[in-house]
Amino acid sequence: MSGPPSTEPSDGSVDSLESETSRRTMLATTGLAVATSGCLRHVRSAVNRDGLEPLSVTITTLPSDGDRESIRLTRRVRDALEAVGIDASIELLASDEFLRAVLVNHDFDLYVGWYPEATEPAFLYEALHSTYADEPGWQNPFGFTDLAFDDLLEMQRRTDGDERRDAVAETLEAFVTHQPFVPICAPEEYRLVRSDRANDWRRFHPGTPLGYLDLGAGGGEIERLRAVHTDPRPSWNLNPLSVEYRNRGLFTGLLYDPLAVTPAAGTVDDEGDPPLADGGKADARYHPWLAESWEWAENEDGGTLTVELRDDCRFHDGEPVTPADVEFTYRFLVDTTLGGDGVSTPSPRHRGHVAPVVVDEIDADGARIELPIAGGEPAAERALAVPILPEHVWRERSASTDVTGVQVADGTTDAVVLDNVPAIGSGPFEFVDRNEREYVTFQRYDDHFTLRNDVDLPGPTVEEFRVRIDPRSTSAIEIVSNGDADVTTDPLESYVVDETVALAAETEGVELLESPARTFYHVGFNFRKAPFGNPHFRRIVARLLDEAWLVDDVFDGHARPLTVPVTEEWTPDALAWDGDDPAAPFLGSDGEIDDVAARDAFESAGFSYDADGRLRVRR
Amino acid sequence: MLTDVLIRVVAVVGILLPVAVATFVGRRRLATLQMEWRSRFRESGPLLVVLLVVLGINRVMRQEGPTISDAIGIQLTWLFYELEGEFVLVFQSVASPELTAYFSAIYVYGYAFLLIFPGIAYFALSNTIYFRQLLAAYSLNYTIGLVFYLVVIALGPRNVMPDLLAGTMVYDASPEYHHFTRQLNSSTNVFPSLHTSLSVTVAIFAYRTREQYPRWTPVAVVIALSVVISTMYLGFHWVIDVVAGIALAAGCVALSMALVDSRNAG
C-alpha cells in the first residue's frame, strides 16, 4: 500500500493501522466530496439553463367552406413563415368556433380573418386600447398593451375636425411601428342582384341595413324580397350581442333600430354619402333614425348629447319605445350583468361605441335623454349607432347563464349567449320564422316610423323578406340568375367574380353590384404568447407579406392592398400604398421572399437560428 | 335545389335498380322471392330494424354531433396534411372535365346504387344469411363511423387547399350536390371515409357471393373502386381516410360474419 509516509509513530499495533486507514479514507472522501460538489454545481448550472427552442406556431382561420380567401391567405402566410424557419401549422375552425376561440377564449397564436366593420378609424380605439386586453369580443383580442399608444387613441377620440385628422395620422404612424396586427387588404364587395325586380339597389350599400329599405321605390314591382345568404348563422341566432354569430349585423340591423344611422354609398363610383331628405346635415356621417334629433354641447369633460326620441314608436310586441329603454340599452351594453355578480360583462360587439358614455349619469325623462360623453363629438355620435333593446325583454337576461352539468365561465350572461329567436326589436322588419340552416323570414313592421306620412326616411317597401341559406357562392349565383332570388346578401367570394361579370353581361335582368370595401383582412398576433409581444418579430412578419401579390393571387385583384387598416380617405400620404408598403417594405419581390435577407433581418433583431435553419425563441 | 337533386338521384337509381335486378338477379330468383318474401322478411326483420335505428341515430347526430365534437373531439386536419403532404393532388395531373363528370356521377349516383342493389340481390337469395350479414355490416359501419366522427374533427383536402383542387371541385361546377351531401354528412367528418368503407363492404360481399352472382362481382368491384378513387379525386378525403375506410370495411365484414351466423333468428 503506497501512500504518504505516516507521520504517526508506527508502533505496528492494529489501532494505528486502522486509524491510518480511516484517515486516508477520510482524506479521500473529502477530496471526492469536493470534486463532486464542484461537478454537481457544474451539472446544475448546465442543466438548469432553459434552451431556446425552434419556434412552432399555429395559424387559426376558417376552412374553405367558411371563406375561401381566408384559407388561401393563411396558406400563403404559412409559406412565408416556413421560408424563414418558423414551423407553422394551420387550424381550421367553423365561423362560430373561430370567433369563440379568437375573441372569447383568446386561444390562438396567429389568426387570419377580417374585422367586422372598419369604415371609420374610431374602431381602432376598442381594437387596440390596453384596458380591453382581457375582455371577450372584438375589443383588443390581440392583448396589445402600450401606454403611449393608448394616449394617441384617446386623443383621436377626444377631438374633432382637423385636430382629429392629425390625431388619427399620428396613431397610424405609431401603428406601423408596432404592427399589432398586419393589415393585408380591403376586399371589394360584389353582389348579384335582379335589376328587373328593383332598380335602386345602388342607392345605399347592400352590406348595410339601409340597402334593403325603399327598394322598388324608384320603380320595380317587388313585394317579396328573396335573398340568398351563404352564412348560416342568422338562421341559428339573431342576438345583436352574440359575437360568434354576427358578421356585421345586417339582419339584426333590420330588426332593431339605432338612434342614428350611417348611410353609406352603394357603389364605388358614388363617393359622397347619399343624402337623406329629412334632418341632419347633408354631409354628416350620422343621420337621425329612432332619434328625432340631437344636440351636442361641449364641456370640459367632453360633452353632453341631448337626444330627442321620436314619438310613439313601438317594439314588435306592441310595447312603446321609451327613454327608459334607451337608458337601459346603454347601461346594459356597458355591463350586461347590470352590476350584479361583481364581474362586468360588456357587450362584445358594442364596447367601443358605448365606452365614452358615462352611463351612471344618463338622465332620461320625458322625451329627452341626456347622455354625458367623455369624448368629442364624433365619439358621441358613434354612440348613437347601437341597437335599442327593449328593457322588458332584456333586463332578465342579465342573469348568469345556467347550463346543467356544464361549468360556465364567470360573467357569462344569458344576454351574450341566448339565440334571441324570436327577436323583438323596433326595426323596420320583424321576425316571422326560421328553419336552421335553411332560411329566415322577416316581414314588414307596419307600425314602423319610416312608414308615417310625415317622415321622409327610407322604409320597408317589401312585405316579406325571405333569406335563404345556401352555403356556396356558385349556387347563390345560379339561384339569382334563375330568378329564384333577388339578391346575394353576402358578398361573393373572389374566385367567382370574374365569371359572374361575364354571366351578368349575358343574362337579362341581372346585374353585378360592386360596392366599396367595409372591412379588411389581417393577420392578428396574440401578444400573450411569445414571441408575438416582440415588436421586431411582428415588424419582420409584416415585411414577409407582399400585399399586392396576395391581392392578385388570392383575390384576383379584387381588393386594395393596405399598409394601415383604414379607408383611403383616412390614410396619411406618407403611408399610402405606392406599389409597396412604405412602412413594412416586402423582403423580396413579386411574392418571392428573399430568404437570406429575411433571416438576416431576424438575426439583426436578436433572434437566432439553429443548425437546421429553424428560428429559435424562448417560450 | 335539394329537391331537384333528390328527384334526380331517385330517378337515376330508380332506373338502374330494375335494370340491374333484371341483369343479375334473374327471373327464377324473383319468382321464388315472390313466394318466400314474407318468411325472409321475418328472418331479417330484427337486423333491418337495427339498421334503421342506426340510420336514425346518425341523422340526429348530424345536428347534435358538432356540439359533442367541440367538447371531446381532436383536431386532426393538420396532422393528416403533414403526414400526407399533397399526395391527393396526384389526381389533379390526370384531371379532365370528363373524368370529373364521371367521378361526380359515381360519387352520388353510383354510390347510392352500390349500396341499395346488394340489399335487393341478397334478399332474393333463399338463404337470408348474406342479406342479414349485409345489414349487420352496414349497421356496424355507420355505428363505428359515428364514434370516429364524434372523436375526430378533420376537414378534407378541399377545405385546406381549394385552389389546388380547383380543377375537380365538384361543388363549384355542380353546387346542387352540396345541398344533397350536406343532409347526409358534415364537412368535419372525413375520417374515416364512409364512402370507402361501405363501398368496400359491398365489394367484399360481392366477392363472397361470386357463386350466386358471378356477373355482379366484377361490376361491384369496378364501381367500388371508382367510388374510392372519386373521394380523393374530388378532394373530399385524404388517403389516410381511405385507408381507414378500407380497414373499417374489413373489420365490419368480419364482425358481421361472426355475429350473424346461420341461426334462423337474426
From TrEMBL, chain A:
InterPro entries with a match to the protein in the record: SBP_5, SBP_5_dom
Coiled coil: none
Record field: compositional bias (Polar residues): 1-10
Stretches for region Disordered: 1-22
GO aspect biological process, one term: peptide transport
Pfam family membership, one: SBP_bac_5
Molecular function GO terms recorded: peptide transmembrane transporter activity
Ranges of residues in domain Solute-binding protein family: 286-613
Alphabetic keyword roster: Signal, Transport
SUPFAM superfamilies: Periplasmic binding protein-like II
Stated family: Belongs to the bacterial solute-binding protein 5 family.
Classification via PANTHER family: OLIGOPEPTIDE-BINDING PROTEIN APPA (PTHR30290:SF9), PERIPLASMIC BINDING COMPONENT OF ABC TRANSPORTER (PTHR30290)
Protein name: ABC transporter periplasmic protein
Native source species: Natronobacterium gregoryi (strain ATCC 43098 / DSM 3393 / CCM 3738 / CIP 104747 / IAM 13177 / JCM 8860 / NBRC 102187 / NCIMB 2189 / SP2)
UniProtKB/TrEMBL annotation, chain B:
Residue ranges occupied by any Phosphatidic acid phosphatase type 2/haloperoxidase domain in the UniProt entry: 129-257
Segment forming the signal sequence: none
GO cellular component: membrane
Main localization category: membrane
Keyword annotations of the record: Membrane, Transmembrane, Transmembrane helix
Transmembrane feature ranges: 6-25, 45-61, 101-123, 135-155, 190-207, 219-236, 242-260
Listed SMART domains: acidPPc
Gene3D superfamilies attached to this UniProt entry: Phosphatidic acid phosphatase type 2/haloperoxidase
Locations listed in the record: Membrane
Membrane topology listed for this record: Multi-pass membrane protein
Protein name: Inositol phosphorylceramide synthase
Source species of the chain: Natronobacterium gregoryi (strain ATCC 43098 / DSM 3393 / CCM 3738 / CIP 104747 / IAM 13177 / JCM 8860 / NBRC 102187 / NCIMB 2189 / SP2)
